[in-house]
Write a structure and sequence with these properties.
The chain has strands spanning 28-32, 38-43, 48-50, 59-61, 72-77, 85-91, 101-105, 119-121, 127-129, 138-140, 153-156, 162-168, 174-176, 185-187, 195-197, 203-205, 214-216, 236-238, 246-248, 251-258, 267-274, 278-287, 296-302, 307-313, 318-327, 332-340, 348-356. With 357 residues, the chain is mostly beta strands. Strand 12 and strand 13 (174-176) form a beta hairpin.
């Protein structure tokens, strides 16, 4: 009993000393229940054990049950403004596996933290928010991830440099990619790449090596207007396998877009070359604005000798003419304005229907 000593110092401090004469090496201060069951101990080395008689660190808490007697750190804050708040850090309950650290939050004032954790960290280091069994390093379920103040989503490239993958810029435009990155943007809606946007601005659909601003490998079905910004299409191919054709049954279609304002007769707005002999069957003219009363504009398809003319006049927005005009292979055809009485017809679409001979 000589080693048991609970002195009171001159300033009123109480010191509990389990080995004040330094003749022991394994003495402990133990706190037991009235039936002799130890609840907590402080070892001479300074390690504290709660629920364990062999603490392996400065503080070790052990539980004997996954529910009623868990190893848990319970925090409670009594605040008069909004009631008491509770938190718990313990082995995750609910559907979580053993070895998963759970962060539990009270769902009512003064209530015990919920058995279902709000966030978990499993034995593999995976973090889950809203999910008790995360399958990835960071797994979120049941809600969105919100980034304030135009913060980006970043990822590191193969050289270890952090790059912006996705960002809402200061003008609220969605930006994909990093301004300093040199890679391409690839779209994989399935097992293989379908669309590619290269760092030089070229877009490839059905190809991984586009050599034009837009490079398509495959058929293109255009139900609207094929527009070209400028005055003409140069060296376009007019054949049934051309990328600028739309083919229905045996009838092929080619369309060109122009405005007549500020032009004069002889203005060529499309030029093309046939890859095969063709027969032009019909030319349709669609205009957003009619020429106006007593005005007219004539559109001409020609190889220099054989002409196919269609005239849009007065208040009409549509004109059509039928033909049976043959043009040989390798013919250079032009679409032009052959006559204009001074009207300004905007947004005109001229559609040529033909068959391959």
């Amino acid at each position: 009993m000589a080693d048991q000593n609970i002195p009171v110092t001159a300033n009123g401090d109480v010191i509990i000393d389990c080995d004040n004469d330094n003749n022991g090496t394994t003495q402990v201060i133990a706190f037991s229940h009235d039936n002799g069951t130890e609840l907590m101990r402080i070892e001479e080395s300074g390690k504290v054990g709660i629920g364990t008689t062999t603490p392996g660190s400065k503080l070790e808490i052990a539980g004997s049950s996954a529910t009623s007697n868990q190893a848990k750190i319970f925090l409670k804050d009594t605040a008069g403004d909004a009631g008491s708040r509770t938190w718990g850090i313990n082995n995750a309950q609910g559907d979580s596996a053993y070895g998963t650290l759970g962060f539990h939050v009270g769902t009512s004032s003064g209530g015990t933290p919920s058995n279902t954790p709000k966030m978990v960290i499993d034995k593999d280091g995976n973090v889950g928010i809203g999910v008790t069994s995360p399958t990835e390093l960071f797994h979120v379920s049941g809600g969105a991830i919100l980034l304030d103040n135009n913060q980006p989503i970043r990822t590191k490239d193969s050289g270890g440099t952090a790059r912006v993958a996705l960002k809402l810029d200061s003008s609220d435009n969605l930006r994909i990619g990093d301004t300093s990155a040199l890679g391409n943007i690839l779209f994989y809606p399935g097992a293989s790449e379908k669309i590619r946007l290269q760092s030089d601005g070229k877009v490839g659909i059905g190809t991984v090596s586009p050599n034009e601003v837009l490079h398509v490998v495959g058929n293109v079905n255009c139900t609207g207007v094929y527009k070209v910004s400028g005055t003409q299409i140069s060296s376009a191919n007019l054949s049934n396998d051309s990328s600028i054709n739309k083919k229905t049954s045996t009838i092929c279609h080619f369309s060109a877009f122009t405005n007549t304002g500020g032009t004069s007769p002889g203005f060529v707005f499309a030029r093309l070359t046939t890859d095969a002999a063709i027969t032009v069957k019909r030319i349709n003219v669609y205009a957003a604005d009619a020429p106006g009363t007593s005005f007219s504009t004539t559109f001409r398809l020609s190889d220099g000798s054989n002409n196919c003319d269609v005239t849009l006049s007065d208040t009409d927005n549509y004109a059509t003419s039928t033909f049976s005009q043959n043009y040989s292979s390798s013919s250079t055809l032009t679409l032009s304005i052959s006559a204009d009485t001074g009207s300004a017809t905007d947004r005109v679409n001229v559609v040529v229907e033909y068959i391959i001979q």
